[in-house]
Amino acid sequence: MDGLKIRWRRLISESGRTCARCSNTGESVEAAFKKLQKALSELSVKVSLEKEDIDYESFKSDPLQSNQVWINGKLLEEWIGGTIGQSQCCDVCGDSDCRTILIGRNTFEAVPEKLIIRAGLLAASDLYKK
User: Fold this and answer.
1) How many folded domains does the chain comprise?
2) CB 45 within 8 A of CB 3
3) Count of CB atoms situated within 10 Å of the CB of 71
4) d(CA 40, CA 73)
5) What is the DSSP letter of 74?
6) Residue 54's domain spans which residues?
7) Can you give the pLDDT at residue 93?
8) In the predicted model, is pLDDT for residue 117 greater than 90?
9) Looking at residues 121-129, what average pLDDT do you find?
10) What is the DSSP letter of 1?
11) How many other C-beta atoms lie within 10 A of the C-beta of residue 101?
């Protein structure tokens, strides 16, 4: 059985800091990872988590690459029928408009745990199509 790979990308400043929305998403990613790991172990699906730092120069050229959650090679919003948006962030990000996720009429600056779990379960169900 193939595994479930979660990859989270976020800006890390030279001083090792990130913005509040990425920090909150990080907490959600960790919590969702642990829950998916526990739930999917019964199905022999191994869940892995990779955290990828983005440097400031890369971020400045494309701010929307920060705070991305990828699951088995697809962006989270692709799994759950969302789209990306953007909004002003904070001091670590400078004057950049950073990534948001739009689901229906709801806009999320930080990605909630429940959306990560939902996308993870959809991706896990895809493993059974093979």
Assistant:
1) 1
2) yes
3) 26
4) 18
5) E
6) 4-129
7) 80
8) yes
9) 92
10) -
11) 24
